[in-house]
Amino acid sequence: MNERAGERGADPGPPGGDAFLTVTDLHAGYGEARVLHGVNLTVGRGEICAILGPNGAGKTTLLRALSGMVRVRGAVRLDGADLTRRPPDAVARRGVAHVPEGRGTFMPLTVEENLRLGAFVRRGRGEVEADLERIHGYFPVLRERLRQPAGSLSGGEQQMLAIGRALMLRPRLLLLDEPSLGLAPIVTRELFRIVQTINEQERTTVVVVEQNAHLALDVAGRAHVLETGRIVLSGSAERIRADEQVAQSYLGYRV
């Protein structure tokens, strides 16, 4: 797909030019291994943006770079604030919540303890208590499991807990890494429905890395296709879905 990356990969930017997240010439990796090679992308305020690409393309590394978990070169700006090379706790204090691949749940802790950990950078006990009720509204099953160890939950319930914990931060930017991994299709569809509701009701900007390209494009307004550490295609979800090479490589049909 990268034969015409320079022509096809240019990011047209969010509608109306309201860029909330801006990534410029981002390089990142692990030790001597470079994974991202000059990534440029924008995400609009209040939109759901999908990051698509094959295994090994650098999608997880991109989210880790955005949340301060790996060393980077380039620039990451959120609502005008420079997040480049800030540590994860400082990035979280700027309103960035990251739900990693594998969920990152603290298995021995109870559901309630996991949720409260999500509010670690916040002040005000009353607000935290109110937000626990807010999370229960999105995920009623978590209210029923509050005293249970997180490790006793099903895979779908653990993913709900991971997203709920992230929402306890009251994030402005929510990063989701492979939320459908290992889940039944019906559970996956419900999770994405809830993510859409959160986006619509709270205007939380969402960046989601997802192997299920069909589902990601159903909920996203725009998408970026990442290949070998470079953005090779950016645009509206409709444009990405209609691209012949994307359709063949990720969606399983010919345009």
UniProtKB/TrEMBL annotation:
Which part of the chain is the ABC transporter domain? Answer: 21-253
Arranged from A to Z, the UniProt key words for this protein are: Amino-acid transport, ATP-binding, Nucleotide-binding, Transport
Pfam families documented for this protein:
ABC_tran (PF00005)
Q: Which terms under GO biological process does the entry name?
A: L-amino acid transport
Check the record and name the InterPro entries matching this protein: AAA+_ATPase, ABC_transporter-like_ATP-bd, ABC_transporter-like_CS, BCAA_Transport_ATP-bd_LivF, P-loop_NTPase
Report the GO molecular function annotations: ATP binding; ATP hydrolysis activity; branched-chain amino acid transmembrane transporter activity
Q: Report the sequence similarity comment from the record.
A: Belongs to the ABC transporter superfamily.
Name of the protein described by the UniProt record = ABC transporter ATP-binding protein
* Organism listed in the record: Planobispora takensis
